[in-house]
């Protein structure tokens, strides 16, 4: 059974302390509640909590002291609460490591939403699988099965063929196999068979001797030779030219290569991992890939799931990229709101993890806020026009609109539509036939109630 997460609540107001404790207990937390900074610091010296929620100002200390104690040698997330919110205090708190800085009074459902986001980030950190030069992020069943099979393959020393869609992380999986094997301390050499010009590819793979061709003023080792003792990755092997395939087949079978222009074979101790985003079996059937080379490569076949088939990993990946690209957001990790996460999970991501990474980088670069919500998604992926969009007639919303200034009519209509949708900005924008960004600007322009519309 999964262990309940632990929470330390620190607040000198008994009512707030009791209410927070009761609410989080109901939501499955193990809660300890204390009334001051000194007591909290003693608790933190004795044990580690999954989360700390602390008041900012208390008679015997402040929340910054509690936060420093909580984060001393650990990554415990901390949320600060205060009745005296100010911009300088918030900036200082976030710079020093607070995950959020909230002003009292705060409804519990809002606090719970913030806690959910904070804990998603903490869980994301535990969902990364080291692959040497990068991380494979996720814990979906399909990904776990792929990694389990890759670990088993790593221990065999056999050649591996990874067939998966572009952007799924084939090179990361190849590096994962290398670093999980007994070759982990040896070279890992990658060559993209589709990126090297065809006339140069043979030399790139097998090397050349001095004078082997015009411009070959010195001998040069090829990628196979450089990978000796370790692993060579043949990326996009399906694009290997047909006339070069027999030489690769011989290198795989004999574990030796000859540099261009030299007749001396070089013996190699090497493992081959090949990747492709096309079906090699289909290429064989089309006469574009040698069947014997295909069977020689396909000793242990592996695959990676498309992102659309592991949508539960999308929030973890989003947090991973948000932290990775935090420097683009003025050095601070942004807040990814639930409606933004819902948009991410509902998108098909034909470019897989690479497309999501590029999207997150673009959002953080272009956004003028650290609050990343559905509007940020819709600005990049606008919804297609809907022919069946139902408009709310002004007359129905405002029976006495005649003679009323246009600005007042529009303001009232916006307010009524938001009330009709229970504050759901996305639905309101659809009904009004405008974008979310336009709706947000209108809310600001007309000074509508400051509560945050969802």
How would you explain this protein's 3D organization?
This protein is of the alpha/beta class and 454 residues long. It folds into 4 domains: 6-125, Rossmann fold, CATH 3.40.50.2300; 130-302, Rossmann fold (3-Layer(aba) Sandwich); 307-380, Helicase, Ruva Protein, domain 3 (Orthogonal Bundle); 394-445, Arc Repressor Mutant, subunit A (Orthogonal Bundle). Helix content is 43%, strand content 15%. It has 20 helices and 18 strands. It has helices spanning 14-26, 37-46, 63-70, 87-95, 108-125, 141-154, 170-179, 198-206, 223-226, 245-254, 280-285, 291-297, 314-324, 338-346, 352-366, 374-380, 394-397, 406-420, 425-432, 436-445; strands spanning 6-10, 30-34, 51-55, 57-58, 61-62, 78-82, 100-103, 128-130, 135-137, 160-163, 188-192, 231-235, 256-258, 265-267, 271-276, 300-302, 335-336, 371-372. The strands form 6 sheets. Strands 2-1-3-6-7 form a 5-stranded parallel beta sheet, with helices on both faces. A 5-stranded parallel beta sheet has the order 11-12-15-10-16. Helix 5 crosses helix 13 (314-324). The longest helix is centred in the N-terminal third of the chain and has 18 residues, at 108-125. It is elongated, with a radius of gyration of 29 Å. The relative contact order is 0.07. Mean pLDDT is 83; it is low at 385-401 and 450-454.
